[in-house]
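Subject: complex prediction, re-run

Hi both,

The earlier run crashed halfway through, so I resubmitted it with identical inputs.
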Amino acid sequence: KKLNISHSQITRLYSRFHSLDKGENGALSREDFQRIPELAINPLGDRIINAFFPEGEDQVNFRGFMRTLAHFRPVEDNEKNKDLTSGEPLNSRTNKLHFAFQLYDLDRDDKISRDELLQVLRMMVGVNISDEQLGSIADRTIQEADTNGDMCISFSEFTKVLEKVDVEQKMSIRFLH
Amino acid sequence: MEGAWEIAFVFFQVWLSIVVGLIMLPAMFGVSLGFTDIYIKVLVKTLEWATLRIQRGQKEQAALPSQSANGIIEKDDGSMQEEIGELRRSHPKNLAGGDFTLCDAFYFCKKGIENIVEDQVTQRFTSEELASWNLLTRTNNNFCYISLRLTIIWGLGVFIRYCILLPLRITLAVIGLSWLVIGTILVGLLPSSNVKNWLSDLVHITCYRICARGLSATIRYHNKENRPKKGGICVANHTSPIDIVILANDGCYAMVGQVHGGLMGVLQRSIVRSCPHVWFERSEMKDRHAVAKRLKDHIADKTKLPILIFPEGTCINNTSVMMFKKGSFEIGGTIYPVAIKYDPQFGDAFWNSAKYNMVSYLLRMMTSWAIVCNVWYLPPMTRQDGEDAVQFANRVKSAIAHQGGLVDLSWDGGLKREKVKESLKEEQQKMYSSMIIGSDFNENVNTQQLH
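This time it finished cleanly. Structure:
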């Protein structure tokens, strides 16, 4: 799969991967990520870290690291016109939205249930909001998004609700070089 | 056989007299013969030439650009409220403020990924990357073979550093430290008097000067009128154990620290004979009140030397100043802040204690080109009314960071070894909660009215 990242950026990221890899075994574990203080205090830190690890695995190698980060490449104008035979790039709007969707979808069953939404909300607010209030927030959110009445948010419902959000800008990392 | 020994002996005598005559004696009188200055000038010219060659070579090979001081990725500086507010603005509901939307997660997601690519804290515990190579193998990260001439210069550099400078520096270090131990023991035999204090100061300064020569240290002191006075506390940013040598070259301080064994222990026990330093047993360090009391007693006695403390508590890589522990700022007394900034082109002074032990670190120091640094004495500060120890500590830290051109961080240097406190995450959660809960109550009221 083509990642379309420049040579210097790959080198930078490899250097970063290497500095995070304290065990020097060519792969990162969840503890390696937790060692970044600003990530450890991020309320959704665990969910973000989890996105790097494929189902059931505890180690991510450099290829996997890059693949996950590739979702956050900015969408360049000239690439929007590329032919579709090369497959949708990882950093397309759809794939960025899917990345965010998976932050909520804890069991990876392509639906966000009320329970999952509650759990993620609880991560974000800590102890500061009561169960009842959180429950009503979750209910209202699902009500707004759910169009087919199954009391869950599917990926297409998720996409519809957020269609006006500038995903390309908000879910992109720009290198300075 | 006899002949060989005689020659070796003569060699040794000549060597020793050169060292004594040209280095030790001038050091004792604080006089510089100018050798170090010439050496530095030659070094600067060589490194400039090398940089140009590398840049030219890089253009031809289209090699990699180096890291700028601003980091490698763009970061939005907005607060949580600003950023999430922007995200929510495009949401169809367009709420006045507050309440949860699914796109809120984008903010945390982006911040998290940014921090995975580059964060403010973990980079402070490894050596700073150089903008251009300084001809030391150890700093050779992304630089590849450029030209034969450069490689020859590099080879010459290796020879000079390891075969000429290293033995010289080791000799000086050994002389300096032995003289410190012997001198302070001798001075310690005298009864307490002004003469004793004067001699103690002389012995200390001479030995630290010799040690500084042993590192080819070029130190520039700024604003000497703000030099710490007796009964005060000198506070500085910490990069390496060499900081002590750097500061003690220009003044006499009372050291504070834990009692060590081995060579350090010998040094500690001998220098405390000639003038009072504050050494703590490991068990005493845990009792904050006992520590504070001893320091208070020390500064209350106006005949004793100013205390030297590094409030960060650990070595940082000299690109930033991290959280100052409030202990030193609760004692009272006048704080004399000092900023130390090393020039990384000539040698990396940072002691990465996870990677190198003390001996390998000192060897690395002695095989660098030189240690070049600037020391700024800042005007004394005292705690103001209504200011608590933490605020005072932050104020001093900002002043030092500003003077030294260092990044002012509030992260704890202890994060080098420990996990971050859970309470910081709770702060983030609290901040976010206030963005949801605000208008949620009103929403409930409105929907109830509608039905």
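Strands of chain A lie at 27-28, 60-61, 111-112, 153-154.

- K.
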